[in-house]
């Protein structure tokens, strides 16, 4: 198999996993709060346990996807 095909398949797999991890994250911010509206004195929720692990996995998958994309440019 060609290296470019392997990189493409890896990108597809990582992108699907990245979409899944982003969708699994529990977001309490509504659409209004995302654009600056809502309660200014709201309580900030710290991530603990599985939420923190899911966030770390999402960050790692994002970095892997970015590196695969850069690698695909040079192959």
Give a structural overview:
- This protein has one domain.
- It has helices spanning 3-24, 31-34, 50-74.
- Helix 1 (3-24) runs antiparallel to helix 3 (50-74).
- The protein contains three helices and no strands.
- The protein is mostly helical and 75 residues long.
- Helices cover 68% and strands 0% of the residues.
> How confident is the prediction overall: mean pLDDT?
84
Largest sheet: none
Q: What portion of the residues fall into strands of 2 or more residues?
A: under 5%
Give me the number of helical elements.
Answer: 3
| SSE class | mainly alpha
What are the SSEs and their pairings?
Layout: H1 3-24, H2 31-34, H3 50-74
Helix pairs in contact: 1-3
Task: Summarize this structure briefly.
This protein has 75 residues and is an all-alpha fold.
Attribute tags:
75 residues; mainly alpha; elongated
């Amino acid at each position: 198999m060609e290296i470019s095909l392997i990189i493409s398949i890896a990108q597809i797999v990582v992108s699907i996993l990245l979409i899944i991890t982003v969708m699994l994250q529990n977001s309490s911010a509504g659409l209004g709060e995302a654009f600056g509206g809502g309660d200014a004195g709201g309580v900030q929720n710290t991530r603990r346990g599985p939420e923190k692990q899911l966030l770390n996995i999402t960050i790692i998958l994002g970095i892997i996807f970015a590196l695969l994309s850069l690698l695909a440019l040079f192959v």
